[in-house]
Amino acid sequence: AQRVTQPEKLLSVFKGAPVELKCNYSYSGSPELFWYVQYSRQRLQLLLRHISRESIKGFTADLNKGETSFHLKKPFAQEEDSAMYYCALKIQGAQKLVFGQGTRLTINP
Amino acid sequence: GAVVSQHPSWVICKSGTSVKIECRSLDFQATTMFWYRQFPKQSLMLMATSNEGSKATYEQGVEKDKFLINHASLTLSTLTVTSAHPEDSSFYICSATQPNRLAKNIQYFGAGTRLSVL
Fold first, then answer.
1. Other C-beta atoms within 10 Å of B29: how many?
2. DSSP-based three-state secondary structure for B103
3. What is the number of alpha carbons within 13 Å of residue A97 lying toward its C-beta?
4. pLDDT, position B76
């Protein structure tokens, strides 16, 4: 079955330090990967997706099919990056997303 | 753009009663809507996928007679929790996708509904 694994439930880094939120997926076909973010008291929203190959709020994520990973990275963390981050997988032919367990990122001042 | 409204945001009901939650796409026509359930400190669990004018597709283990989903228009889907019990207390979230090719497969989420069954 398709699965998304985010190994870190909690991640805490200092402001200005690099951040990497890990995401691994299990799917033998051609995946479409997303990162969604939920800031405090806000709804879940799209941060970025691999097909766009863009940087959003300084975050990037590269799909590595060999390692079946889609890690989210930012070189210099900011306090406003503190949020819950979810990695999600869409498989071919299906409309639904499979979500990882989420990582709560805390940026310390 | 692509705003999804969910109502109510919080509902308390007595055990045995039914509760209806609405999910509306305000500025786009939602080809597909999704209903999730989220337990405290856990991830989103997909309950069902709903396409306008057709029956919802429920995930394994989700009781379709318990969680009735209606998607009567391209802007409205409803989730009715029938004969609610305390174990149905949870946070229910809807999302929607739009047919715009550039936004394909992006889900836009509602703010969620907290259901408390006494």
1. 13
2. helix
3. 31
4. 93
The verdict on whether omega for the bond into residue B8 sits within 30 degrees of 0, i.e. cis, is yes
* Separation in Å, CA A26 to CA A4, A69, A98, B61: 6, 9, 10, 21
Instruction: Let me know how long chain A is.
Output: 109
The values of phi and psi at residue B11, to 5°, are: -140, 135
Q: What is the mean pLDDT of residues A53-79?
A: 93
**Which chain B residue has the Cα nearest residue A87?**
B43
Which residues in chain A are contacts of B110 at CB distance < 8 A? Answer: 43
| A32, A49, A102 member nearest B43 (Cβ) | A102
**CA distance to partner chain A, nearest, from residue B16 (Å):** 29
Yes or no, beta carbons of A86 and B43 under 8 Å apart: yes
Task: Note the pLDDT tens digit of each residue in B61-112.
Answer: 999 999 999 988 889 999 999 999 999 999 999 999 987 767 778 999 999 9
Instruction: Compute how many other C-beta atoms are within 10 angstroms of the C-beta atom of residue B40.
Output: 6
User: For the segment B12-61, what is each residue's pLDDT rounded down to a tens digit?
Assistant: 999 999 999 999 999 888 889 999 999 887 889 999 999 888 889 999 99
How far apart, in whole angstroms, are the C-alpha atoms of residue A38 and residue B62?
25
Helical H runs in chain B? none
Which amino acid makes up residue B17? T
